[in-house]
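Hello,

Following up on my earlier ticket. Below are the two sequence lines again, exactly as submitted.
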Amino acid sequence: MTTIRPPPVVKLADGGTHTTDVTEASAKDHTKGWRRNNLLSSERERDDMSPERTPSVEWTTDQQFQTNSYYGSPTFRSMDRHELELRFKRPKSHTIRFRGKTKNESRDLLALFLQLSPIHPFSRLSHTQFIILQQSSSVSMASGQQLSSIKGAKVLMVGAGGIGCELLKTLALSGFEDIHIIDMDTIEVSNLNRQFLFRQSHVGQSKAKVARDAVLRFRPQISITPYHANVKDTNFNVDFFKQFSVVLNGLDNLDARRHVNRLCLAADVPLVESGTTGFLGQVTVHIKGRTECYECQPKPAPKTYPVCTITSTPSKFVHCIVWAKDLLFAKLFGDKNQDNDLNVRSNDTTTSSDHSEDIFELGPDEDIQQYANRIYDHVFGHNIQTALSNEETWKNRNKPRPIYVKDALSDESIQQNGNADVSNDSLSSLSAMAYLGLKNPQDIWSLKESSRVFFAALKLFFSKRQKEIGNLTFDKDDPLAVEFVTAAANIRAASFNIPLHSLFEAKGIAGNIVHAVATTNAIIAGLIVIEAIKVLQNDAKNCRMTYCLQHPSRKMLLMPVEPFEPNKSCYVCSETPLLLEVNTHRAKLRDLVEKVVTSKLGMSLPLITHGSSLLYEVGDDLEEDMVANYEANLEKVLSELPYAITGGTIITVEDLQQELVCNINIKHREEFDEEKEPDEMVLHGWTTPTPAVENNKDATDNNGASTSSTSKSAPNDMEDDDELSILETGIETIPAGGKKRKSSDVSTPETLIDEKRAKKIPEQPENDDDVIVMLDDRNDPVVTL
Amino acid sequence: MTGAELTEQETALYDRQIRVWGVDAQRRLSKSHVFVSGLKGTAVEFCKNIVLAGVGSLTLNDDNPVTEEALAANFLIPFDENMGGGGSLAELCCDSLKDFNPMVHVSVEKGDLSSFDVNFFEKFDVVVISCCSLAAKKSVNEKCRKLSKRVAFYTVDCRDSCGEIFVDLQKYAYAKEKADETVECLLQYPSYEEAIAIPWRSLPKRVSKLYFAMRVVERFEDVERRKPGETSISDLPNVLKLRNELCLAHSLNESQIPDSLLERLVVSTKEFPPISAVLGGILGQEVIKAISGKGDPLKNFFFFDSVDGKGLIEDISTP
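Thanks for your patience. The regenerated structure is below:
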């Protein structure tokens, strides 16, 4: 691991004074037995070279060194002409000068000199004295051993966002000299509050590249290699990963984390993984064969909602957001051919579902206002009216109220809407809010305001962004889309008697925006570097998972926990076969690929084989006829494939890039529960997502709000950054439930606030300084065959 | 601008953190004034955090010239063979910090920390001092306490792989949000002088060993008239002697302050960057809490040691 450059020639200018004897024991202490003789011989060979051309160490003292006395900490000075000087006051005044051709060379010389201490009385210094000298070499580090492992390390950082900026800075300050950094993102305004390496003027540029340039300004002598690319790109393969000593993740999504986990396992490179949300954060260490891999434990699944809750019986604002975003917005502005439950479900009790096909088409003679009115009346009025006719649904629920345009807007506002000249230049800002004079995104609009925003946004889309219609997907950075979704969600909420929300809040929910502050990212980055150094020193036994908590648990704000051993039934790191229950007479290969292989198993370049025959693969270099063949297979039912997949079949699924191979035992099953098992497939043995809780984005209420279990809420998978992948009808949340194992014995109630009560709570007996928290009660994945 | 509402620019920039602490807190932050003295790595981390968070103003105090050592631990100062061309640490840090967030007013206050009188501190809501002598800590803390308004006082120190934060919010009332209800809480903080005067025997049984070790080193530097961090291995015998004396006086078992811990603190006085990042982050969070009135502030000491990895809160106050 440790790489030390070959020694430059060291010339001890002031010969006669360093006559202290050198012993094997002293040599061993600080150089790990490293080539003392080497240096001595090179010194002899080069003795005649001139000092101008040869880096040199000059050592002046008029006294013999006392080998047993303490040498006080030296003062360190940077001299002219790249020289460095160490001056000692104790026990006798003496100085040592380091003269290289450049300042860096002088530094190297000093660092090297210190490592070669056997030729110098420094070898008699205690370990801690040695540390001082190391630190004097302008790199603040804790020990010589650390220094060399840090300097020699080649580090890969994945992610240059919130954690990434902090991490790159801390790595550079800590003495790392060879850092590679991958990030596909470009800089946005909302990053600037914490991604401190970026400025307003960088908006739109590559995060990885700008971060590199920013760090090189204060640490120009180190090497930082940026990649403005997706870590899932095929050139970042196992061989690429193998060149690194350690991989540090500062990612913002589960998918990429899993991908990096697999590559680290395949390349056998240790991984330090991290995440933050708000004031919470965590750092974990994953070393193949020693600690659990990132996928050994269940990960919180993105929250999904039953379809009928969204289409018929919303009870929370988030349900209205999902409806507005994934159904209405998608239907109006997205791909019209996409399956969409907006009509099907809301009309399935009754009448004119044949008509629904046309509802969202702009009629040939229809102007935009008429169209907008018709849509409004249909989705907020007619559909609710229709749903109301099903008495059964509303037995135990509050009945919604249909809202028609005429109810929401007075006649004159309808008139206004009708007269609004959408081609007017004042609309060029493309914001419905600006058009309507609504300013504060924190304000909660009334039903009337929401309706006006709805109309204005719809008309702006049709008049100003006509070309995009049909291809739009919701984007939280598209202000008009956010306005439309907020308005539509609020109108629906009004209908169902659900409290309305501001645009700011709605944007957070719809865009899955994760809370983020600089402080937590800085703390987590510091902890990542601490763990990375342990990994580099092969000190795996002292590695810890650390949780950064919002409320202290047993007095701890930063809680270290011993890492877990690998999960023996983890399909990723232990090759345990999976079991898939599926109706082999109904499910197509496409279903298997989409619902299991890519989504659940997270493979991006899958290859599916049955026995020795290939059923499916993805790749750039495939023959045309093969591609056609695979395409045909995709549409076939499993039991009708050329090599039929039936109950008892074992198929092999692998990803060549991730070097991950899984065997899946197929079990035929006839029936599935439509609501609970909408995929019509059940996969056992993969780390089943823990049930996510309903979205709770309330800042103060968040994580650890349940005072009885602060650390339980330390999330298992958190997002560093703004975005994360969202399921079709899902809102990803931070699981308040977290992992069971963490809740088991760290649920000390908050004691700081109530001092009287605090006195009554006895200290826990095992709470000793030297004991770290051990937790058990792990969740096991669903039992396999 | 009355600051009643956040501007559009502020809303866009602070979007993600407003989602953490709310608009009210952001508004209070933008009206707050913070003073920081002693700009080594940890204080610099703190400054970065608080500027990004969007305080109203930040005043920096550190007349020391830029040295190789200071440069090594400071990401605010661009690399320069001329060591910053003669500017003080505060001046050079100021330039970079302004750049981080144009909405924060960053300025430099020259002069020795001890020369600032009570009235000087009235301008601030938060005072943070780092790498200061025991005498300076006590005196600045007392000055802050003499004012009629509350000035939140913090110290932060990092030695080797250990760190300490002290907090004095005097009388601090806040609304604690608990499950569904809001509880009014009142915290009473001791001053630095009061806190460290508390007999060790009367402290809770499992107070972090770092608390005692830091007191020993602090006392040593005080009696020897050293600058903070100006110790070396040659001091260890005397530090151990002082430890023994203090333990005897406080009837505390010497094993509560292990030799090895003292050796680390005495010998390696540099700030280790990852530790600075952690301490600067925790301190930033605490200051944000105190300004915004949101969240439970820590009372009154925080310790971090990367050897065991724990970040501990200790309440060192008389019941």
